[in-house]
Write a structure and sequence with these properties.
By secondary structure, the protein is an alpha+beta fold. The protein has one domain: Sandwich (Jelly Rolls), CATH 2.60.120. Helix content is 19%, strand content 34%. The strands form four sheets. A seven-stranded antiparallel beta sheet has the order 1-13-9-16-7-6-2, covered by helices on one side. A hairpin with a 6-residue loop joins strand 11 and strand 12. It is globular, with a radius of gyration of 16 Å.
């Protein structure tokens, strides 16, 4: 199995287009903050040159609607993670838990440079998930780098209502290309 074969897509996530649109409408009412990055010492800092995206954690449980979407997405994401584990690993390991569910909004110029999701200092992650909510923007492809060759091994173009899953470790550096038109809405989640 090649590295790129560990990167899997699943769609549709929501069983109808209206759910996706309603979720995006609700997302637009949220108060987003700039996202941070984790440095080598495990500290979280803001660096818009590396990561220019706004985020909102659904783990806050402030509103009834927020709890509804957290519970709905948790159920869907756990199911997708289990399907992925069965397909890729033959079901040979189980999940301990989801670490968080975060809504992301990329405006024009928004991007996230190459990085990996697992940080043994303070963010141990096993599997990564990115839920692409819309495709009404330009740019914003999810790109995966082969760490051995330093060549792009896979590019995921925008496709509404699609989840991408991959291992969180050092073998899967990935980036979100700069947005050149529109807004990119997504949700990220990790299994530990």
């Amino acid at each position: 199995m090649e590295l790129k074969d560990f990167i899997k897509s699943y769609n549709p996530v929501f069983n109808n287009e209206e759910k996706c649109k309603n979720f995006i409408e609700w997302i637009d009412t949220l108060e987003f903050q700039n996202s941070g990055i984790v440095d080598e010492q495990g500290n979280i800092k803001e660096d818009l040159n590396v990561r220019n995206v706004k985020s909102y954690s659904l783990n806050r449980f402030k509103y009834g609607t927020e709890t509804h979407y957290f519970n709905l997405l948790s159920k869907i994401f756990l199911e997708i993670f289990r399907q992925y584990i069965k397909e890729v690993y033959g079901g040979s390991f189980s999940l301990n838990q989801l670490s968080e569910i975060t809504v992301l909004k990329y405006d024009v110029g928004g991007k996230y440079d190459f990085h990996t999701d697992h940080n043994p200092l303070n963010i141990p992650r096993t599997l990564s998930l990115s839920f692409l909510l819309n495709d009404t923007y330009a740019g914003g492809q999810l790109e995966f780098l082969n760490p051995s060759t330093q060549n792009i091994m896979k590019i995921i173009s925008p496709k509404e209502n699609t989840v991408i899953v991959w291992p969180s470790d050092y073998k899967f550096p990935h980036a979100v290309a700069p947005i050149t038109r529109g807004k990119r809405y997504g949700v990220v989640c990790w299994a530990v």
